[in-house]
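Priority: low. Protein: Large ribosomal subunit protein uL18c. Input follows.
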Amino acid sequence: MINDIKQLHKRYRLLVHLSNNHVYAQIIDDLNNRTVLSVSTLTPQVKSKLSITCNKKAAELVGEYVAQQALNFGIRNVVFDRGRKLYHGKVEVLANSARSFGLKF
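Result:
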């Protein structure tokens, strides 16, 4: 069991946060305690494509963009961290979108 946990810490973590107005996704390197990249509905490339920033379409676009950016950084495998949110609705849409664009978790 301990070895499994250590293996997970060698991978990057995709953290998802939802507020009332925006969708956020970060890829975090826990070994070095730093955020590698961050994408949200406030990111200009994402915001320009949306009229509403807190729906499933916004979550899908954030998932797509975070996956593309991660692949540009050479990150393919991540651990999905949804916090206390249920794997439902916007969280599920973001995860499926990131998977469809090449992230593995």
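Strands lie at 12-18, 23-29, 34-40, 78-81. The domain at 2-100 is CATH 3.30.420.100 (Nucleotidyltransferase; domain 5).
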